[in-house]
Amino acid sequence: MNDLFRGELRTQAQYLLSGYQTDSALFFASSRQTLLAQGHYATVPTADSLEALNESVSLALKQAKATGHLDPVVVGAIPFDGQKPACLSIPRSVLRAGPLPQSLAQPKPQAVPCTIQSLPEPQVYADGVALAVSHLQNKDLDKVVLARALDLTAEQAVDIPKLLVTLAQRNAHGYTFAVNLSAAAAEEEATPRILIGASPELLVRKQGKLVFSNPLAGSAARSPDPKIDRERGEALLQSAKDLHEHAVVVDAVAAGLRPFCRTLNVPERPVLLHTETMWHLSTEISGELIDEATTSLMLASALHPTPAVCGHPKRSARDLISQIEPFDRGFYTGMLGWCDANGDGEWVVTIRCAEVLGKSLRLFAGAGIVADSSPQSELAETSAKFRTMLNAMGLVHAGAV
């Protein structure tokens, strides 16, 4: 691909970003491509399990083709609890372009005046971590992920397209997204509910016979001081606690993909990946499928939820999460993305995000807890993860969260 053509694709990607409106079903930008899904063609019926949802998606795509849709693609989001209703639809059109340029201008975002309420309060969250550690030390669990939320109420309706542009500008290496959670209703709502964010974590991508996953686990906050920042990254790469947490996730993802794959490459050690606010331990897993008919959503469903957002063993971790967390995660730590009629597609883990409805926002952040976790350190990790959204809203000095 020559430089001129590559430049044209990036210009087209910027056009898609500037063309996003809240009635768009999905905006999705990765390091590979940019998608903008517009209009409503069909709704994927809800289902009470991921297996049933896969059947609904397959049927919806076949029906769309049979009724004349030239390029049906299912887009949307699936909640943390796979038994709860997903928000999936087939848009009238999906516009595609190359990746957004990494040199997007970064004007300073204007602060959004708002009130902030923690759910639960920080010390209550730390107490929950201590309770989880006691379970882990009793060998009931290898890992559990505990989340908390921030409820923000702004003085005026949030400018979602502007917030999306800011997220894209600040998170060029991740997955910037906006999902219209009202899109599957097939009726335009006066105030749509939007899931917006910049996730660093690829759950799975399927292209023909090739499959890729990029689990992340083990994190450290970035520092504005280059020397300290570098030291934090190196310390993370040597941390026995974080390496163990990461290995639990990688082993689970590999085990989930292996039955579908003829070959599977799993690196022995993780590498460092960074976002604007965090260092992460990262492992890039790749493989070749036995059956090309296996869809991206089938693969994503086999992995969801990974120990990176739930824990291990899965059932015990879920039970403890339901006991400790004082809110329903909804789509947070679920998955979002797209799957076309060939089964190709890309699904990311729904983190570093917020749900927005008019003047109200709910932000989410979580931390992986293992037996030697420190409650205050895990609390600090969630505070750092909130910064992806808070910084994009201009709330750099939001105080202790």
UniProtKB/TrEMBL annotation:
Catalytic reaction equation(s): chorismate = isochorismate
Gene3D superfamilies reported in the protein's UniProt record: Anthranilate synthase
SUPFAM superfamilies: ADC synthase
Cleaved signal peptide residues: none
Record's keyword annotation contains Isomerase: yes
First-level EC class: isomerase
Family, similarity comment: Belongs to the isochorismate synthase family.
Protein name per its UniProtKB record: isochorismate synthase
Organism: Iodobacter arcticus
Gene name per UniProt: dhbC
